[in-house]
Design a protein that fits this description.
In chain A, about 40% of the residues lie in helices and about 25% in strands. Chain A is of the alpha/beta class. Chain A has one domain: Ribokinase (UDP-N-acetylmuramoyl-L-alanine:D-glutamate ligase). The first copy, chain A, has a 10-stranded mixed beta sheet with strand order 6-5-1-9-10-11-12-13-14-15, with helices on both faces. A 4-stranded mixed beta sheet of chain A has the order 4-2-7-8. In chain A, helix 1 crosses helix 8. The longest helix of chain A is centred in the C-terminal third of the chain and has 17 residues. Chains A and B meet through strand 2, strand 3, helix 2, strand 7 and strand 8 of A and strand 2, strand 3, helix 2, strand 7 and strand 8 of B. Chains A, B: This is Sugar kinase. Chains A, B: One of its GO terms (molecular function) is phosphofructokinase activity. Chains A, B: Keywords: ATP-binding, Kinase, Nucleotide-binding, Transferase.
């Protein structure tokens, strides 16, 4: 089982509009609501590939109930902890005329971090890998992610962390197996704008692997054994949020099987590409995954050093 | 009691953001949720002025429960009818950097129109005036507003209608006492762009009074007795949605007291101005109302004919 901790779950609301009139009133043509949060997307991708994923999340209020029911409808096993704060929303406005999406994320707040941590510890015995993905809600301690990461590592489990800012800096103190920032998140946490230099510095300093997602340009991966740039066979346009979550899923299932980082980069890029072509985060095109796997180009960056 | 029918209630969500990054991701700094729908705003203004207002609305799901609880927190008596469709949201993104607001309205749907109509009829015996304000939800019959208006008029009650498009055209068939379109809504329903000419035509053809709201420029009012342009003493900047609802409240309380249209225009303009200066629709500054009342300028448009 791969344990997917979702510290800041949400109901992801999508508004399809003909043309978004910013500064005026726009009628929404279609409303879609589904359980969200990056860890949920990761768990859905894992489930689609036949892996056993469990989502652990604090939930509250009517939206918390909707979140639980939504996971159940997805066929995702969920371990939920009751929070006194209602589960938040995110709203994505998909503008057909402009061909773009605007995302509004409500802040997440919980009052039950200790209970989440207790459940996390209890679930470690059944886990083969741990994913911690998403933002740290207010109400959680600053060292919350570090403590959980240390516990999972002490249980000899691989831990994949995908978060940003202070939460990422905090999680690094727990020495996760791998972190997966995008270029902007990597620059923010390292203070360096060069992706490869930043990844090497973080990997060396914290003793973690770093996989930086570069959108259509694939990823840069660094660990103690080397550094690589992996690119998809062909450029695909689509949904970048889902791509990052699929990449995390590939890392988690690879590490759960004991695969070395350098040997799972092909799957990571291919799975990411298979998510890009889907309209919603959390979905992957399994046939596209298989097609992409054979064409990923992996460049050894140590050779050029 | 003034009966305020809210055919399409909503939870009005306000997102305060530092700067709305359209096409990207924006973190919401503050989330406010409150029961909305134009008739709710009207009832709140009436209540603030000491009138007894009752809101009648179909509600469903957890948001329907939130709507009922929110009205209760406002101290507003509510008569709710259970719908199988969840009460919708509207989302207003208030962008501090741009100094503007973008409103997204979800479509309203109900499955309980007949039960709403039954409750409406039962409440007429206690009513001194009726307000019908807001859009007609899908699931309601095309002649729904006309039927209710006819019933209220048959009970010799004044009826104020504030809606638009096909719903306004439908309501006119019921011969309400007064309709309150804005300039755009009036142009849409009449096919004429000149406000005074459009108002005179509709008033003459349907035998109704027409009060057209003109924002900072006040209102134009037409009934069988004459036509007038009423303007505030001074221009105020602020929230135009709340201003229209306050204007409806002024019409309803005036007609409930048997006041002639020409004698309530001062209150209508002043109450509208007292709403403009408030940040949220449904709130009025009672002191500003008293200040504005003395300065409203009323021009008799018949004299110039």
């Amino acid at each position: 089982m791969i344990l997917c901790l979702c510290p800041s779950p949400a109901i992801d609301v999508t508004y399809n509009v003909a043309a978004f009139a910013v500064g005026e009133t726009t009628r929404v043509r279609r409303v879609t609501r589904r359980p969200g949060g990056k860890a949920v997307n990761v768990a859905r991708v894992l489930t689609a590939l036949g892996d056993h994923a469990v989502v652990l999340a604090p939930v509250g209020g009517a939206t918390g109930e909707e979140f639980r029911n939504g996971l159940s409808a997805f066929g995702l096993p969920a371990e939920t902890v009751h929070s006194g704060h209602s589960t938040r929303h995110t709203v994505t406005v998909v503008d057909a005329a402009a061909g773009q999406a605007s995302v509004l994320t409500e802040p997440a707040t919980i009052d039950c971090w200790d209970a989440v941590a207790d459940r996390f510890h209890a679930l470690l015995t059944a886990a083969e890998a741990v994913v911690i993905s998403g933002s740290l809600p207010s109400g959680a301690p600053d060292d919350g992610l570090a403590t959980l990461t240390l516990a999972a590592r002490a249980a000899e489990l691989p831990v994949v962390v995908d978060t940003s800012g202070a939460a990422l800096a905090g999680a690094l103190a727990g020495k996760p197996t791998v972190i997966k920032p995008n270029a902007a998140e990597l620059a923010e946490v390292s203070g360096r704008s060069d992706v490869l230099a930043a990844a090497r510095e973080l990997a060396g300093f914290h003793g973690v692997a770093v996989v930086a997602s570069l959108g259509a340009d694939g990823l840069i991966a660094v660990d103690a054994a080397g550094s690589w740039h992996a690119r998809p066979a062909r450029r695909l346009r689509g949904n970048p949020t889902g791509a990052g979550d699929a990449l995390v899923a590939a890392l988690a299932r690879g590490f759960a099987r004991g695969t070395a980082l350098c040997d799972l980069l092909g799957d990571a890029v291919a799975l990411s590409a298979a998510a890009v072509v889907q309209p919603y985060a959390g979905e992957v095109d399994v046939a596209e995954f298989d097609r992409q796997r054979t064409g990923v180009r992996i460049e050894d960056l140590e050779a050029a050093r």
